[in-house]
Amino acid sequence: MQSRENRRELFRVSFTETVWGKLTLLGQGGVTVRLLDISSQGALVESDLELSTKSRLFLDFKLNSVPFSVPGTVIRKVVHPEFTHYGIQFSENREQFNQLFRELNRYAIRKAKPYLEME
């Protein structure tokens, strides 16, 4: 596990466009969720599904056309009238962490490129 200080060093990518993923509870079927933001350590998703904190799951999504299927645990839940936000902490997997970190960097650079070219 990363310390709190190290966690702050990892950047988070917030999506301006809609990015869909599939959340699958262990031993159950999957449901479509909306990814709001993501880091190499976890994600914030939106769903109308009822989950409890500590639920173990897999989150499937694509970033830069690269598919990911990441195991994780619900660590935070914020209920809104129409939907619920869930904070998901990804399970430690060094290889997957490195691949996701690379793709997050590529995504962030690609998103910033139009702004950099304007200067």
Key words describing this protein structure:
single chain, about 120 residues, alpha+beta, Thrombin, subunit H, disordered N terminus, PilZ domain-containing protein, PilZ_domain, cyclic-di-GMP binding
Structure overview:
InterPro entries: PilZ_domain. It holds the Pfam family PilZ. GO terms for molecular function: cyclic-di-GMP binding. Residues 26-101 form the PilZ domain. This protein is an alpha+beta fold. The protein has one domain: Beta Barrel (Thrombin, subunit H). It contains 2 helices and 6 strands, in the order H-E-E-E-E-E-E-H. Strands 1-2-3-6-5-4 form a 6-stranded antiparallel barrel.
Write the layout of secondary structure elements.
Layout: H1 4-9, E1 13-25, E2 30-38, E3 42-47, E4 56-63, E5 66-79, E6 84-90, H2 94-118
Characterize this entry briefly.
This protein has 119 residues and is an alpha+beta fold. The protein has helices at 4-9, 94-118, and strands at residues 13-25, 30-38, 42-47, 56-63, 66-79, 84-90. Strand 4 and strand 5 (66-79) form a beta hairpin.
